[in-house]
Amino acid sequence: MKPYYIICMVLLLFACQKDFLQMPISNTTTTDSIFSTTIKAQGAIANAYKIVLSQGLPYQGNWNSLIQDNASGALTYGFSWTWGYGISTSTGLTATGNTEDMDGYAYNFTTIRQAYLVKENIDKVTDMTDADKAIVKAEMTALIAYRYEQMVIMYGGVPIVSKSLTVNDDLSIPRAPVAEVMDSISSWCDAAAAVLPSVWTSTWTGRMTKSAALAIKAKALLYAARPLFNTASPYLDLGANNNLICLGNADAGRWQTAVTAAEAVIKEAENNGGIKIINTGNPLDDYGTATSTPANAEIILAFKYDAGGSSMNTFYNMHNWQAYGNGLTTSYLENYYKADGTDQVWPSSSTAFSDYITRMQAMEPRFKASFKAWEIDTWNNPNDNTWANSNLYQWAMNVAAVPVKFYYKAGTRNWFEFPIFRLAAYYLSAAEAYNEMGQSANALTKLNVIHQRAGLPAVTETDQAKLRTIIQREWAAEFFDENYWLHDIKHWKRADIGNGLIGGVIRTLHFNSDGGGKMTGNTDYNDGQMYLGFWAPRQYLNPFPQTEINKGTLIQNPGY
Amino acid sequence: MRYRTLLYMLAFSGKVLAQSVPDSIPTASVSKVSGEELYKTPAANITNTFYGRLPGIITQQASGEPGYDNANFVIRGIGTYDNNDLAIFVDGFQVNNTYFQYLSAVEIASVKLYKDAAALAAFGMRGANGVLWITTKRGRISKPTVQVQVRNGVQQAENINKPLRSYDYARLYNQAVSNDLYAVNNHQYIYTPKYSATQLDAYKNGTGTDIDWFDEVLKKNAVFRDANITFSGGDTSTRYALIVDYMKNQGLYNVATNSTTSNAQIQRFNLRANLDFSFFKIFEAKVDLGGRIEDRRYPNFNGPSLWNNMAAYPSNIYPVKDETGNWSGTTVYSNNPVASLKGLGWASTHDRTLQANFNLKEKLDFITPGLYLNEAVSFNTWTRNSASKTATYARYYNGVKTTTDVTTDIVASNSAPTNQYDWKQANLSAGYDRTFGPHAVHALVNYFASNYIEDWNGSFNGSGYNTGNNIFHHYTNLGGTVDYTYREKYMLGFGFGYSGSDNYAPGHNHGFYPAISAGWIALTDPLYLKIRASAGKSGNENSLQGRYLFQQYYGTSTAFYTGVTSLNANSAIVPTYIANPDIFAEHSMKYNVGFDMTLFKKLDIIADAYLDKRGGIVTYDQASYAATIGTALMFKNIGKMTNKGLELTMNYHDNWKGLGYRVGGSVLYHKNTIDYQAEIAPVNSFSKTTGRAAGTPMGLIAEGFYQVEDFNADGTLKSGLPVPVFGAVQPGDIKYKDLDNSGFVDQNDVTKIGKPSYPSLYYSFNASLDYKGFDVSILFQGGAGADYNMLNATTQTQAFVSNNNAFPMAKGAWAYYPSEGIDTRATATYPRLTTQANRNNYRNSTFWIKKNNYLRIRNIEVGYTLPEAFLKRAHLSNLRLFMSATNPVTISKLLRDYNFDPETPTGYPGLKSYIGGLSVSFN
Question: Domain for residue B715, yes or no?
């Protein structure tokens, strides 16, 4: 045998290596396969819906999750290990950790990119009609608009991304002015609404509709008209960059825009979308159904995720100890009326517990559909042992009541569908805008649709300032735990935000000489301080994470 | 070409021999230990015989649980923050740790450790973490020889840290519950005990429940037994070594091994047949069969959980059996440790392993003197079957059934396959060894191909997408070394590896790894001195970040729903990390200088200094992209590390009037730095982990405890004191430094709080004597420069938290109840007790970091070899009796102060053993 034979053999082996070192094949999904068929593309579409609509919700079920009302002063701050604790009590919002955007600022762009990915690739699907593809693209456009609408309310101006970016793209996109973000949202929504269906077949109910696209736009425009953005001088000065945190001028005309948008939602929803304000004359049932029943007639868009057994509901469903971090404060309780439309008063000195029962029983139906009071079987699941006093008790604590909203006549259903948009919001949006425009009659018409549905006597107040207070109180009573209040009070620039709303003395009801409310055998109660809330004006808008600022492109919001 | 075709070709080429590195590279840094040396430490797992015996390797002891007692190896310190696993070869073929760990020391002729670039060059992409090169025993030309060795003895726990007994537990629990009412009691400490004085008295005088769970579950001594027979011999044409070895190692559990219960146990049956044939002058063939059966049996309860329960279940919770004679149990403490042994049945695994190698060498001196070829193949296969006999038991407390569990009869399950791997390798070599005049040349070129398949994700099939079940891992390497020596004085070496891996994109999956080295024998007699230097590149394709990072994958995620009444689940598909088409293996540049010195043929000194510069470490690039990219990011070859160190080994041996003696020792000092790891710049630069050693513990700086004077009447901290953000604090909680003076103690105050857990100084020394047939030897091994984070031993450090037990360190807790005569404010060594999770106290800080230096006596052996005259009469060639003690003594501050073993502080403890044995040979 000759040496060159060996050499040839080795070279031959090398020639074969090309195949030998080929990656093994498996059933893992790759880029080539993801947009091949409708079935597979639906996975990408579902993911876009899931992650875009998850904004502000504890859908991951993390141990330290925050629900928005933990930070708004409506509910207690959660536990000492949850996000809400630091925000509410010690450091407030910070650029180095404490923010209400639990999934992180960067995750917003993950959700937006997913929507763009679908939009850009849906044409590759071979077994879908062009009309259907157009609808999918419109859905994705609406989802992008939704996420931006949520972001602009939290952060002010944010970078506008117009496609799915890759590592080779220039990623140093600066923050766009608030006005530009608002304009983009409006035009995206208009474009989507032109293509989206008014209703889906029952299998696909829950996807974006024309009403939903208009609702996104109307919500954005309402916040554009409110005082925080609708001004030339923002809450804190950012000099040349003031346009990142406000619209740069005060323009009363923005209320007209907001009203038009809200009326458009109502018109489309009621005329074509099969959506209505549920009012059968039975307030507890009507309001309970509207907020709790999956896919009920008042829902424009919901986060239909929890049914699969996620742990999101553990923060809302009082059968779980996690939810026990969320007790009602007196400060928020006072937004509810008595059933007769008058105000309830809570004693600040020690009073017999029977008085608590009496006062609680006198509350309006919306309160009863949303809370469970001490020692009283849950009003919203009457005669259901699952929801009886004894079955919801976890431990003693000093809170006015515990929330059971989203579980009206839920029985053993432990999951719920978070209502992102309910038609009622657009009645109140319109009412608020009409009042700001000085049209109290129009405002009252819209307001009373909601107020009277709750079984309360009609509001007749015509003084603009007084009516403004009433409308704001209506937002609180109607939309508890639906992720409005925290941003509403900031965007209204409420004077008392640092003195009883978010900051300052936050009150609760104390039981049994401060020993906490018990399942049975409570003796006395009184209203008093629970904790001192933290407030600083910088918190009107959220901070961008310091690590992101350090990358050099973004301008931080003032005060952080 | 598919692998099968490759083998087909190989079979038909019909002329070869193998070994991918020459027997010795004169310029390389290699250390060595013989199988006989390893045999001196009686241990079930071969990794536990390495302590202090092989210079350059750091052996870190882990659990002592029979069958799961593998020690961790690191060569020359931490080279990368990615995978540090070294490559192990047995008889020229790569094996995984599953195969290696239960080799018997009797099978091993020698273990070599390849450390520097000159030694590792030919290993290419699998060389960067060092190579352990094992050669098994072969027959020599001799009369047939039979050696029989028997060892028998006991194993004991090195150390068990026992919790407090009922009295101390209850007494301190009273403090803990009282402390927790501080806020409720208007920020005052008011004593509100849970256990009354009567109850405490009952615990004290022994009438209350007071169970020592460790005593109930364990026995003192466990069986270790090992017997083997070696037949060897041969002539010029045929040589053989046949080895049979049986080992049985039982656990410390006090339970019988019978049809319904089982102690922890492994029985190992090793059989090795190494055969050599020489024929037709040019052929040399080797057939090596290394087969093994491992039978493991355990109580049907997870071992680590059982050890945790013994530590975590307080002494006073319940008696072992309740008054009705049933096993005690409650919903909180549901797994009665004794019942876990005796009431659940047992589980077993049955492992079968075979490494079969065939090797053919052709000496082609007829073509040109010194030329040879070598072809070899290896088939290595392992399967595991599992079977069990299981039962459940009802839990009772005070005569009442507490859980839904019921007592059932024992049920047998079928034996079912649970895991396997299959590893086929081929090796083709051409070599040339020749000396002419003053020139000596050794050259070897080698082509290696490997196909590895396993059922589950393991060390060679990585994590991530498209791995695991039945996914192969293909690898090829063309390696070579050339050594040239001039006048037996000047040496030059060149080595290379050209490796390909299917981990990387086609067209981009090969790397070239060259190395050069030089040596100079400066002096020969009486002082021998060789100076060596080497520099070269090697790679590491075995990343923890996963394989196929060049391929864009989509993962599945939870569903989003549509629909009205009947909901329609639409499962979501999510893009994963961005594919990086350029992803490749991490590389290492290694530099080594050293010398080998011998004085008067009595003193040997080997010294080495090394530098290992790693680059291209596969790293998730979180630093480079703005959030706007909106996707999981890319893995890139961007990480960098520097590891450097010194090694020194000295041995001295001499005789004095028939007394032979030998002393020696070795030291390894290493230090590493992460140079780049794509760390997102933290808010404060002192929080950076880049620039520090890998694994440096980060945390807050503790400054003693809060005192009563630090608080206002309303429970808030006095102004001027930084506020911790981890929940409300109260007197007795740990106080931290606000490093950035922000007014808050938060994650931004985190900085380096100690040293990594690996000892930076690893050393051993030994001494032996022999006189007239008697021999004595002792081996010490120690480590220094490491720190231990006590929070890693949650059960032992977080007293009472989440129904946990309390350990003696809780006795030092801060407490202030003057009414009870309790005031430890000035002397406290532990934060105030609590029954609740406390994010302020139980978080990484200097408070919990303790120095972890230790020195162990690893082995003492006393032996007696019978005199030759006697042996002749008994027709024996050798008979030796011996006794040995393994790990009998440990000196450690962590052990002294906290009763924590320095290497195995939690779970199944490390073992010490006392063994007697005998070795007989005849021919």
Answer: yes
Helix (H) or strand (E) holding B238: strand B238-250
Burial class (CB in 10 A: 0-12, 13-18, 19+), A378: buried
Which residues in A536-551 are b (16+ Cβ under 10 Å) and which e?
A: eebbbbbbbbbbbbeb
Minimal Cβ distance to B506: which of A2, A22, A114: A22
Mutation choice for B interface testing from A5, A11, A18, A29 by most B CBs within 10 A:
A29
CB of B686 closer than 8 Å to CB of B115: no
For B460, the 3-state DSSP assignment is: coil
Residue B681: pLDDT band with limits 50, 70, 90 = confident
Nearest CB neighbour to B574, from listed A47, A548, A551: A47
Between B373, B557, B567, which is nearest A6 by CB? Answer: B373
How far the first Cα of chain A sits from its last, in Å, is 79
Is residue B71 a part of any domain in this protein? yes
Looking at the structure, do residues B132 and B171 belong to the same domain, yes or no? no
From B626, which residue of chain A is nearest by alpha-carbon distance?
Answer: A171
pTM above 0.90, yes or no: no
Instruction: Please give the pLDDT value at position B15.
Output: 27
Q: Look at residue B12 in the predicted model and tell me its pLDDT.
A: 32
Question: What ipTM goes with this model?
Answer: 0.88
A542, pLDDT greater than 70 = yes
Query: What is chain B's mean pLDDT, rounded?
Result: 92
Who among A19, A159, A546 is closest to B2 (CB)? A19
Q: Which residues of B touch A167 (CB under 8 A)?
A: 578, 625, 629, 634
Domain annotation covers residue B690: no
- Whether residues B740 and B816 share a domain: the answer is yes
Task: Say if the Cβ atoms of A81 and B428 lie within 8 Å.
Answer: no
Angle (CA) A180-A181-A184 rounded to 5° is 85
Structural domain for B125, as ranges: 13-137
Residue A18 near chain B (CB below 8 Å): yes
CB-count burial class (<10 Å; 0-12, 13-18, 19+) for A372: buried
Give the model confidence (pLDDT) of B509-552 as tens digits: 999 999 999 999 999 888 999 999 999 999 999 998 888 899 88
Model pLDDT, residue B1: 33
What is the structure's pLDDT at B2? 38
Q: How many domains does chain B have?
A: 2
Residue B813 placed within a domain: yes
Query: Looking at residue B325, what DSSP letter applies?
Result: S
Q: Is the pLDDT of residue B633 over 90?
A: no
B168 Cβ contact list (under 8 Å, min separation 6): B806, B811
Residues of B in contact with A310 (CB under 8 A): 558
- Say what the pLDDT of residue B171 is: 95
Please report the domains of chain A, with CATH numbers, ordered by start residue. Answer: 39-62+104-275 (1.25.40.390)
Cα(B458)–Cα(A195) distance, integer angstroms: 51
Tokens of B222: 């466990």
Segment A190-204 shows an average pLDDT of: 96
Closest-approach residue (CA) in chain B for A109: B630
pLDDT at residue B837, as a whole number: 84
Query: A295 at the B interface (CB within 8 A)?
Result: yes
Q: Are residues B98 and B183 in the same domain?
A: no
A174: cis peptide before it, omega within 30°?
Answer: no
Checking if the pLDDT of B22 tops 60, the result is: no
The CATH number of whichever domain residue B121 belongs to comes to 2.170.130.10
Are B52 and B175 contained in the same domain?
no
Contact: B572, A43; criterion CB under 8 Å: yes
Q: Is A73 helix (H, G, I), strand (E, B) or coil?
A: coil
CA distances from B174 to A72, B17, B196, B318, B564 (A): 38, 75, 9, 19, 55
B715 and B835 belong to one structural domain: yes
Final residue before a domain boundary, out of B786, B810, B841: B841
Average of pLDDT values for B858-867? 95
